[in-house]
């Protein structure tokens, strides 16, 4: 039996809850991950021998992996009965299994970066301009139109309703824009492709049109758990509403309305209100904070209570840690932001290497973080930024990824171009695309086979490279054994690394990305525990997952507040606490009680509650040449300047 003795009374009540749908309002550092994992473990223990599964949706692969690892420790061997994944990954699985109803094949490609999406939109615009029935404005360009197409997709607007929606919103060129949107969605179908927003839009369309699929999902997944529910947008909530019906009694939702900081991406306090109205959820609160020192909790409570649209009866955070001496909270004012960043860098640099690894610099904007990062590097302190990385950078990993994509999608011209570019950087052999495309068209062969034929005609081919092509790619085309091929290509790349290459930058980040590949492969394999991961499943997971390099042990993270959410650090430096930065210029313009200002207050709340040991708050009289006033949040926290 799972041991619940480490949980407090509120946590145990949430884990053992059996009285219908439940909303757990879990403050920062309240042990919500522990509650989720223990609840999953408890359900698995009590239902041994039964065939239903558990669906647990999170918002990041990191969170899913953490919960997966903890569940495996609590109930070894039972993980195959749990689907722990993100909303987008679950949408991809739905479309793999049932997308044929919408004319998608299971091996669809995910367009994970804007360059691929713009290329597809360019093709759409070219075709529409050739059609005399359409008249598009001359200024319509893919790069400018993509944000509007993305917004329509994120709102899951059906193509036949786009014109009305755009006209009601008084959007200029509403009718031609609606045509472009409809043609883009049609092009996704024709090319068997999906991008991030269309994964959700098409999944919702699938569940709306085919109610029997909803019944099937509910038959398979008896329990549905949602982590970080406050981050859901309207479309994700609609998917949840469909799969949780008609019996939502086993719905278990963890949220915190004080940590809604993705309003720009559709998150809203209205989502929690809708959950209450639609599902009649009971509520439990986890106000105990095990992370922060008591003084930080005092500041956080004083700040967040100024927000007007919090849940009724929301309890203040309760510090579990004992009071600590020393400079738990420090506040410093500087004449200009350059001096502010320099002081932070020097303050961190003078710490021992061991203490430095416990520090993090947070700010509202990337511009501030870039300045702090430069100062830290100037002081001899390595820096780590948490930027999302959709594609590999090193030539060997780009070559590997492109080949796997071409095996999966035999007419993928973008991947063919990427393969040829990476191969040139590694071997100095230029393979023109035109002959490859012509041969593929004339012979009816796929692009990768034709590319191989073209490469092998070159006399300059090295013996090791020829061996890779013959004993690596050829068998891959027949067996789809991507693991064996990846091992061969990476060993070949290691050997290449020892000799001079045509492009000296070809191996930039290779050693790190090789480790990232291994980590991702291991995590994807674990996620599909008990199942063989097909090539298209692997590619979908790769495209949905950031290829960000792991943080070097000695590096100091410089994160935006958004990137720091869900994390914790020993010593937090929050810089740029001035008006027009935190809170943002837009929030200041909207006013003190605006939704924008309340979100900025939540941003500040999230930032300060990352601190485990100490919190340093800094601000300047001048930021990037502009005079600034101290942030109103300082006085709201009760800090006297």
UniProtKB/TrEMBL annotation:
Family affiliation: Belongs to the helicase family. UvrD subfamily.
Limits of the UvrD-like helicase ATP-binding domain: 5-293
Keywords: ATP-binding, DNA-binding, Helicase, Hydrolase, Isomerase, Nucleotide-binding
GO molecular function: 3'-5' DNA helicase activity; ATP binding; ATP hydrolysis activity; DNA binding
SUPFAM superfamilies: P-loop containing nucleoside triphosphate hydrolases
Protein name as catalogued: DNA 3'-5' helicase
Nucleotide-binding among keywords: yes
Organism name: Kuenenia stuttgartiensis
Residues the record lists as binding ATP: 26-33
Keyword Amino-acid biosynthesis: no
Pfam families: UvrD-helicase (PF00580), UvrD_C (PF13361)
Catalytic activity: ATP + H2O = ADP + phosphate + H(+); Couples ATP hydrolysis with the unwinding of duplex DNA by translocating in the 3'-5' direction
Source domain of life: Bacteria
InterPro entries: DExx_box_DNA_helicase_dom_sf, DNA_helicase_UvrD-like_C, DNA_helicase_UvrD/REP, P-loop_NTPase, UvrD-like_ATP-bd
Location of the UvrD-like helicase C-terminal domain: 294-566
EC primary class: isomerase
